[in-house]
Amino acid sequence: MAEQHAAHIYDSKIAEWAVLIGSMAGVLMQALDTTIANVALPYMEGSLSASRDQITWVLTSYIIAAAIMTAPVGWLAARFGKKNFFITSIAGFTIASMLCGASQNLEQMVLFRIIQGVFGAALGPLSQTVMLDMYPPAKRGNVMAIWGMGVMLGPILGPTLGGVLTDAYSWRWVFYINVPFGLAACAMLMVFFKDTVRDASLKFDWFGFAALSAGLAGLQLMLDRGTTKGWFSSAEVVIEAMVAVIGLYLFLVHMWTAKKPFIPVVIFKDRNFISGLVLMFVMGIVLLASSALISPYLQNLAGRSVTQTGFLMVPRAFGVMFAMVFAGRLALRVDPRVIMTAGAGLMLWSLWAMTSWTPSINVSTIGWVTFIQGVGMGLVFVPMNMVAFATLSPQLRTDGAGLSNLVRNIGSAIGVSLTTNILAYSVQTIHAQLAGQASVFNRALGVNAPSMMMSPRIPFGLANLNSLIEYRAQVQAYANDFLFMFLVSLPVFAVIWLMKRPAFATEATSKMEVVE
Predict the structure, then answer these.
(1) Which pLDDT tens digit goes with each residue over 457-476?
(2) In whole angstroms, what is the distance from residue 215 CA to residue 207 CA?
(3) Mean pLDDT of the chain
(4) In contact, 450 and 461? CB cutoff 8 Å
(5) Distance between CA 34 and CA 124 in Å, rounded?
(6) CA dihedral of residues 493, 495, 496, 498 (deg, nearest 10)
(7) Cβ neighbours of residue 298 closer than 8 Å, sequence gap 6 or more
(8) Reported confidence tier of residue 345, pLDDT bands at 50, 70, 90
(9) What is the pLDDT of residue 12?
(10) How many Cβ atoms from other residues are within 10 Å of residue 463's Cβ?
(11) Element spanning 327, H or E
């Protein structure tokens, strides 16, 4: 009951909607920036005088900074108040975005992307916490759907918006687009957002933060650089792996033994929340890794333009929106675990369907398969957040939101790294297997004039044959990646039913039966 009295702290609908819109603007900007710059990287190379290997630091620097600064969000919000922290984060993110767009060399860009990641890390957790604080558990379905749209649609629509802005204007508008939305969000929150209580007596856990920062930085660098450096055959990757293991080990030991770690241990005693973290990790893998696979598949193998590829990603976004419109309300009427199970089933079916794709696949098939995948993601995401936070103490919400966003980001990083590595390994393996059939003794390659075009005895025939083998190897390698994501997602069914049915769903069902 105390929580219900704490909710609805805004007497005016205008103030309530202003805070919601301001919060959503923050999370949408942050979510978009995880993928919006991807399609603009080739255009940045010339402008910033960077090589293909160097330009990837534009993405890596942002991801590492955001990962490190996500963990202490709960402490910072409690120490300085959510209003000051939220407005500072949005303002810093907006200024950093403007500076990124004005960068003249790679050094400036990497520096400003780090600053952007530092300030952007808090936008997702804070917006989620603010929305949860505004409503009691029984009324959080719609607001979590709104928040989920920002988190889910950002990475999906990022490449589309980035491609359109880059083609129509320049890559710099990928960053400038944040400025007007950031200014509007700051203004709304400054005027309407009611501050929370601050605890000036809190002491920061510097050792825990340093250990976690080193561990996360080492992990992110290892995952990002491993594929291009040959993994553990590279001294750089070995050092990064050692830093990751030692840092995370020290952090875990410190967290369980320290009196006041900046991530409270009690948060890990909530079964629903822990299950939610596991589901969020898997969602992070599928959400970003599938986007990272579909885009080059359609461009490099199917021969579609950047803009065409971007628009082919839109049906998945529509699927997410369609599901989220009613997923929250539905979770109040029936057991949320049933809805999540149905969503997981749709998501798994779509991944299985992708394993049979070929580059000649028609647009309609791409559209409805990705649409169903979006529906499945939406049906999992909204009830998952409602159930995960339903039994969590209000004092732990900001820490919980920070951890949830951190786990999603780590899942995304691991997913992209693993699928990239599986793709490269599969291409090499399948290429070798197919090349074994392309010998000079294969009579099918030399019985008539057309087949002579692929004959390994002739230089141009050998080149044609190799390009065909490479093409077929890539097609099968992408299918292996989609199969990998399907297999990784299978355990979610068990995790969903490890959750307890939340009280708000039971109460809502009982009230409906009484009314009927």
Answers:
(1) 566 566 666 777 788 888 88
(2) 12
(3) 80
(4) no
(5) 12
(6) 130
(7) 304, 308, 309, 312, 366
(8) very high
(9) 75
(10) 12
(11) helix 314-333
- % of the chain residues with pLDDT over 70: 86
Calpha distance 38→159 (Å, rounded): 7
Kindly report the pTM of this predicted structure.
0.75
**How many CB atoms within 10 Å of residue 79?**
17
Which of 301, 385, 501 lies closest to 132 in space, CA to CA?
385
Q: Compute the distance between CA of residue 143 and CA of residue 133 in angstroms, rounded to an integer.
A: 11
Collapse the DSSP code of 147 into the 3-class scheme (helix H, G, I; strand E, B; otherwise coil) and give the result: helix
Q: Where are the alpha helices (DSSP H) in 355-396?
A: 363-390
Poorest-pLDDT segment among 335-344, 485-494, 498-507: 498-507
Rounded to whole angstroms, the Cα distance separating 366 from 477 reads 18
Q: Nearest 5°: CA angle at 18, between 13 and 21?
A: 125
pLDDT at 176 over 80: yes
Sign for the pseudo-dihedral over CA of 265, 69, 293, 454? negative
The neighbour count for residue 84, using CB atoms within 10 Å, is 16
- Please give the distance of CA 303 from its chain centroid, rounded to a whole number: 26
